[in-house]
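Sequence, please.
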């Protein structure tokens, strides 16, 4: 718990530093400014795992295209009644939003933005995904980099709000849902790609971030839902570690199936 509280403090410091540096960065290009902001955030706040943008950005750099229909359907929103389900799927839909925005899918971006906004309201998070933010997205929908910047800031602010307002457990669910959905998208793209070595490398690179996520879950071991999720993530980590140096397509199918089963438990 102490580590999580400390994280909230350095998160705030990261935001303050980003704001203070804005005036000195007016001459920089938007993408360079955002890259610097995210670097500052990660170095100072020590955000424990890659954001969904980090993972999906690797997919984009690997030349993977956008695949329609592999995201969590927007209509699944009607299934989520508990705060646990809503927090998990805020993370899932956040990753789907990252995916749509990275590939400049305008309608998909607006659809997932709407779901994220509704879940944030349901969880009574008063910052991040609000009406002003949604309006800003609509105005900048044709500017991919600006849209990514707005959404990234919204997620950082939402995470900070949860940690600072006694909802640490919900922040763990959001983080877990986001990471798992990004891994699901990666594995699904890898399955249908002729040249999937880069996608396989993305999957194996996530062992350390997963270890950190499991460490955070351990701090909430008295929460039954988090404890159950942790056990399944430990199982997934062990399966990824078994891949070794020879990541065959058969091993990819095994990993993808395990990710798919866990993801279905979250979104259904």
């Amino acid at each position: 718990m102490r580590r999580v509280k400390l994280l909230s403090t350095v998160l705030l410091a990261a935001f303050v530093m980003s704001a203070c540096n804005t005036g000195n960065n007016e001459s920089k290009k938007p993408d360079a400014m955002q890259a610097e902001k995210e670097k500052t955030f990660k170095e100072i706040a020590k955000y424990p795992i890659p954001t969904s943008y980090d993972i999906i950005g690797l997919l984009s750099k690997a030349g993977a295209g956008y695949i329609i229909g592999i995201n969590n359907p927007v209509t699944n929103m009607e299934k989520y009644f508990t705060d646990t389900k809503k927090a998990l799927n805020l993370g899932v839909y956040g990753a789907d939003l990252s995916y749509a925005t990275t590939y400049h899918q305008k309608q998909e971006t607006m659809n997932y933005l709407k779901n994220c906004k509704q879940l944030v309201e349901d969880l009574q998070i008063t910052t991040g995904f609000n009406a002003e933010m949604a309006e800003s997205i609509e105005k900048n929908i044709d500017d991919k980099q600006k849209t990514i910047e707005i959404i990234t800031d919204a997620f950082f602010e939402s995470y900070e709000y949860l940690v600072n307002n006694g909802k640490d457990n919900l922040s763990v669910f959001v983080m877990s849902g986001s990471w798992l959905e990004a891994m699901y998208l990666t594995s699904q793209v890898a399955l249908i790609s002729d040249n999937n070595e880069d996608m396989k490398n993305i999957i194996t690179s996530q062992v350390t971030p997963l270890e950190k996520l499991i460490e955070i879950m351990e701090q909430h071991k008295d929460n039954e839902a988090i404890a159950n999720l942790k056990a399944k993530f430990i199982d997934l980590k062990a399966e990824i570690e078994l891949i070794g140096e020879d990541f065959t397509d058969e091993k990819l199918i095994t990993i993808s199936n395990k990710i798919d089963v866990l993801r279905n438990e979250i979104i259904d």
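Confidence is low (pLDDT under 50) at residues 1-28, 40-48.
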